[in-house]
Amino acid sequence: TTFKVGYLIGSLAKDSINRKLAIALTRVAPEHLEFMEIPIKDLPLYSYDYDAAYPAVASAFKEAIAAVDAVLFVTPEYNRSIPGGLKNAIDWASRPYGKNSFTRKPSAVIGTSPGAIGTAVAQQQLRSVLSFCNSPQMNAPEAYIQFTPGLITNEGEVTNESTAKFLRDYMAEFHQFIIRVYTALPRDA
Ligand code: FNR
Predict the structure, then answer these.
(1) How far is the CA of 51 from the centre of ligand 1 (A)?
(2) Which of 23, 93, 134, 143 has its CB 3.0 to 4.6 Å from that of 103, i.e. a possible disulfide?
(3) What residue stretches are annotated with the NADPH-dependent FMN reductase-like domain (predicted)?
(4) How many whole angstroms separate alpha carbon 60 and alpha carbon 114?
(5) Interface predicted TM-score (ipTM)
(6) DSSP helix/strand/coil, 73
(7) Is the CB of 115 under 6 A from ligand 1?
(8) Helical H segments across the chain, by residue range
């Protein structure tokens, strides 16, 4: 079985190091995972005033999440938390009340920063948010990637073999986690 994985990049920056990491992850992942980016950058700021009629960009965003079997969050840490744009996207997906797109949707969290703790604090906060959104999360392995210049090329090639192996193992574990989630609970249940 092939599983579709939608990935959300927490950064809107053109030269985002987290985008490089996301591309690298798609390159080292098991072949039975199929990837698509679910973009967040064109979403307006969420308000429940939109609940009665979502704008097209937000409906498309929710449909994109509905269309995938699992979600991978690749996020920077901004001021020891997740970027506002990513939180905004999650808020859109979680609403209207009763139509939370993350319910029962398996997820995993990863991120990179030039700093030594490699987005650890942001990832913990993101895990809290995803818990509330009822997404079954891969608990381990955790992945805090310290970005050094040239570690990952724009094409997603990882230049350090031990990092490449770590990322390959991480994606292999995510694949196994997705299989376990859907073995316990069929996709159409
Ligand atoms: C940062 N940066 C940062 N890094 C970190 O490890 N912990 C932090 O709390 C912060 N805070 C922070 C706030 C803001 C507003 C910015 C713009 C940056 C540095 C950050 O890790 C660096 O800019 C990365 O390049 C961000 O990842 P992307 O956006 O390039 O994927």
Answers:
(1) 32
(2) 134
(3) 4-146
(4) 33
(5) 0.99
(6) strand
(7) yes
(8) 17-28, 56-67, 84-94, 120-132, 161-184
Beta-ladder partners of 144: 111
Report the nearest atom of ligand 1 relative to the CA of 114.
21
pLDDT in tens, 112-142: 999 999 999 999 999 999 999 999 999 999 9
Tell me how far apart the terminal alpha carbons of the chain are, to the nearest angstrom.
17
Q: Which residues pair with 146 in a beta bridge?
A: 113
Count the neighbouring beta carbons within 10 Å of the beta carbon of residue 44: 11
How far, in Å, is the centroid of ligand 1 from the Cα of 2? 34
Assess whether the C-beta atom of 13 lies below 6 angstroms from ligand 1. Answer: yes
| Distances, alpha carbon 13 to alpha carbons 41, 68, 85, in Å | 10, 25, 11
Report whether residue 152 contacts ligand 1, using a CB cutoff of 6 Å: no
Give residue-wise pLDDT tens across range 154-164: 999 999 999 99
Question: What does the block give as tokens for 23?
Answer: 């591309």
Is ligand 1 within 6 A of the CB of residue 75? no
